[in-house]
TrEMBL record:
Enzyme Commission number, as recorded: 3.1.1.24
One of the record's GO molecular function terms: 3-oxoadipate enol-lactonase activity
Keyword Hydrolase: yes
Species of origin: Rhizobium deserti
Domain AB hydrolase-1: 23-248
Full protein name: 3-oxoadipate enol-lactonase
Amino acid sequence: MQFVHINDVVIHYDIQCADDDKPVLVFINSLGTDSRIWHHVLPKLAHDFTILTYDKRGHGLSDLGNPPYSIADHVADLVGLLDHLELSSVILCGLSVGGLIAHGLYQDRPDLVSAIIFSNTAHKIGTAEMWGGRIAAVEQNGIDSILDAVMERWFTRPFRAPENAAYKAYCNMLVRQPDRGYSGTCAAIRDADFTEAAAKIAVPVLCVAGSEDGSTPPEVVRSLADLVPNARYEIIEGVAHIPCVEAPAAYAAVIRGFIEGLNEE
């Protein structure tokens, strides 16, 4: 584990370095999770990529900072981390709010980005009313009060089986995130709209959907792919909102296939 002061917070990150000539892949995790959601994907990619994972502010081992946040706050943290590590021309893989952060980073610093994987995300996620209701619920009753509803969107019914120890662990991950970090990032999602910016993306893009995703269903991800010039679109069958957990092998294969295709162009 590694830590660095970026802006007004301490950011937890981990970097696995392959050879200098390997592409750099940056994973940006979803709301209410931390960098451990990539745990089963990384071994399938680590020999061929330099991989950076981190906990965004208000999540995992990173500082809370001063919520509520904006996507710009999260973008500034990631830009600061990439600058600290002297990384550029990276491939971003952003899951859910991570996709919004990828949008914002490309908009502000296109020089840092060579390609983007938008995973289970959109140009705009949900409505102001929806996010306002979720923020109010968490502020009044804590993340525990929304656990079951969130898990129904995150994971398929088979994964949510009571005998699945991994499911219980990911429930623990959600409820152990700071309430204010969670609600603060809900505010960032509420206020983010990259509808116009998506049409201006000029690097290769892959949009990935889970067939059973209850948070950003396939048609929502498809709407993003339709906005981005020449974007590719793929559905991973039998998974919901967190495919890197439910189907890490399939998820890694989709990422690898996309990046290998870039080398052939």
